[in-house]
Amino acid sequence: MNQGKRQEEWLIRCIRLAPNAPEQNPIEDVWLQGKEMVRRYWNLCHNFKIVKWLFSWTINQDLFDFPHVINVWFLNLN
């Protein structure tokens, strides 16, 4: 996709994240918010099926804010 294009015109960029650095990996924020929702409503989860539904519902809402990812993005562009 990027072949023959200047770096400024690239459609896809690969951002190398440090290995074993969850603070730089945006998926960790997704898991964290899903786990926090389960922790908040654990008393309503009478079985694992409900836990699974609540976790899935939470991560599928696309309500995520990734403040530190913006910093990582800009650091990798330089």
Describe the structure in your own words.
The structure is a single chain. The chain has 78 residues and is an all-alpha fold. The chain has a domain at 25-77. Helix 1 (26-40) crosses helix 2 (48-59). The two termini are 21 Å apart. The protein is built from 3 helices and no strands.
User: Rg from C-alpha positions?
Assistant: 17 Å
Biggest sheet features: none
Terminal CA distance: 21 Å
Mean pLDDT: 79
What's the total number of strands? 0
Global outline: elongated
Task: Please state roughly what percent of the residues sit in beta strands, choosing from under 5%, 5-15%, 15-25%, 25-35%, 35-45% or over 45%.
Answer: under 5%
- Helix count from the secondary structure assignment: 3
State the order of secondary-structure elements, H for helix, E for strand.
HHH
| Uncertain stretches of 5 or more adjacent residues | none
Please identify the structural class as seen in this structure: mainly alpha
Fraction of residues in helix: 40-55%
Structural features:
single chain, 3 helices, elongated
Question: Strands, helices and their partners?
Answer:
Elements: H1 26-40, H2 48-59, H3 67-77
Helix pairs in contact: 1-2
Short summary of the structure?
By secondary structure, this protein is an all-alpha fold. The protein has helices at residues 26-40, 48-59, 67-77. The longest helix has 15 residues, at 26-40.
